From TrEMBL:
SUPFAM superfamilies: Nucleic acid-binding proteins (SSF50249)
Location of the ChsH2 C-terminal OB-fold domain: 51-111
Location of the ChsH2 rubredoxin-like zinc ribbon domain: 21-47
Domain of life: Bacteria
Entry protein name: DUF35 domain-containing protein
Pfam families the record matches: OB_ChsH2_C (PF01796), zf-ChsH2 (PF12172)
Amino acid sequence: MSGTAPTPASAAADWTTGHEALLYEACSACGQRSYFRRGFCPRCGASPVAVHVSQRKGTVYAVTIVARAPTPEWQALAPYPLLLVDLDAGPRVMAHGTAGLAIGDRVQIGFLRLGGQLIPRAEPISQEDEEASP
């Protein structure tokens, strides 16, 4: 379900810092798993929490279509889907998606480099790929 906790030096090494990784926090007190890292549990307030690397697979929870993009780089891709994905590890993340994704679809989160930034991007997982992976 999840990778091992990174070393303290790599604890912030995720897509927001240019590394192809999705990190989340897990509370040892109540078990809450959160994508947005705070350094404490948003459910029970316990601190510290452990940082883990997600394996990037999940299920589409919600989909919306962005027709008016925020920057010229994104406008070239518009209209494009913006998704909420429930990762198998537990947290929910926002990601850009490929056309045609729907609620309930299984996806793999990869990354797209656009305008000098790394952006999470969800692509569908085929049934064969789903069954073949551990």
